Amino acid sequence: MDKIDIKNLTLEELKNKIKRFSIPTYRASQLFDWIYKRRALEFSEMNNISLGLREKLDRYYYIGSIGLKERLRSSDGTEKFLFELSDGNFIETVLIHAQTRNTLCVSTQVGCKYGCVFCASGTRGFVRDLSPSEITDQVLSAQKITGDRITNLVFMGMGEPMDNYENVASSIVIMNSQEGLGIGSRKITISTCGVITGIERFARLGLQANLSISLHEADNKKRSALMPVNKKFPLERLIESCELFIKETGRKITLEYVLIKDKNDSIINADGLSNIARKLKAKVNLIPYSPVYSKSFESPSQKALNQFKDRLIKNKINVTVRDSKGKDIQAACGQLALVKARP
pTM of whole model > 0.90? Predict the structure, then answer.
């Protein structure tokens, strides 16, 4: 039989698996400790587990890992990692340092099938989903490489998290558990372009994690032009799923809005965004567009950004402007991996 990557299993799943092999279930917690706390890469390292049991584990399981291909450091302290997967595909992970927080932006897919016209991640198209192991290993690898503990986690890298919901949910459970990485649920944020089937499942996951919506337009026709996902999941349905999330979790939602010059940065755009934010009692995070070498879109002027922000404030919307980190290393996810993937 084919071996199973043990890091694809949550603690409860691992307990159920090893019970079938007549292994005491408390061993699952020991294994989690070795993998996620002591960062063991081989069962042979686990010296408080008998040789016979280690051999049995090695017969059925392996400990997966991803490899660092490139590490870039920005002048502002942001770091970008290019990881190579076992099949030769590449993904990116970005680490942002801010005072006491170390926020890691992780990828969930190789490429993306949703084709937002301004985004680098979907340029190559969709290749495949990442496994729970490949998602959690981005955190383990970043911690090992830098020596810094990851305090906050955002699913805003390559891919659409809600399109890979099962694997993303499993990785969150692993990373949130005290036996795993022990990252608090309120320090975990999933960002989605609006895949409402995933939002509704996420609402019922039972964790106090955060939801961020990549909105970028408040008009259905214009949003569909920027984000084809809107044709399948239009704004009305997206708002309904957000309302369900708020009802089920009691958590506030953040609306992410990338400002693109002459596309969605007018006062009319700001008023439309205000209407949705007011309905959802949501915070707005404005993000000046980071140019992508293969796209013709541009960042807004500082004047346009200020006018847009001021209009939201006038409309009594809670708004912040996200600083563009890592511009000198192309920290927007997907750009470096796309270059590496070219034949």
Answer: yes
